Request: fold
Amino acid sequence: MKTFYAKVDSYNQTTYETNTLSVLLKDSTRLTLRIDENADVKEGEVYQFECEPIEFKGREQFLVKSHVHITDLDLSFEEEHEAMSAFYTFAPVKSEAIQQDIESYFDKLKNDALRQITLHLYEKHKRDFYRYPAATRFHHAYIGGVAHHTATMLRLVEGFVKTYPYLKEDLLIAGIVLHDIFKVVELSNHYAPEYTKEGRLIGHIAMGVEHIGHTAQTLGLYDTEERLLLQHMVLSHHYYGNFGSPKKPNIPEALALHFIDNIDSKFAVLGEALEQIEPGEFTPSLGVLDRERYYKSKLK
Reply:
């Protein structure tokens, strides 16, 4: 018996009692598997297969005895990362390091109401928060992208607060942690996401505003300015109505959140593009940067 992880490339029906799967292993080896015609498998997804070697028409194949989708296995995120990393793109920083980075900022949430609302929603969505991408394409569109984007944004807070001391640090930190957290509901899954029905009809901004209000109500904090400010920050962080924000920022921390979000989303894309070229070359045109091309200098 042979057990392995594999990504299904194609699923072909046959005239026999079994159908054939073409699968890709972590070492890029391709195998042909035979599986019960009623088995539930999807192209492009990763499974753990338990197979028995067989010979079919003079060729070596494998008969699937059992299969489990990777997300249905009881794996830690690190184990899932190890199993899936050959098939999907992950954040360039390990999830445990990202988590440690993000949670180090929670000590700076001095305002009790901000702390309660933020940590309540964070703990509720924590597992998916470190798995989901920030988008299906454009910026941070890889497993762990939401958390990686959040951690990078948090690192920019210190410079903003030091330069503009009228910014309230704990409010800005709370807004950053919560601004994209409902991407985990807006998108269908973390490995090959599409927009859910709720994502298309409501979106992560409106869902975030709604759940901040609901959480504040549950915690007895609805009639507080903290609830109102957090809702405004999430509501306005895209700035423009055609990007999903019905209100523009009207408090300093909301404006800072918008610019920090914009900085990180664009510089992440630019950094990825620069990694693909040599010094002295230009990047391809980049959609999130008005389709401009950027030169990678030869300076040491």
User: Anything to note?
Assistant: The radius of gyration is 23 Å. Residues 89-275 form one domain. The first helix runs from residue 77 to 84.
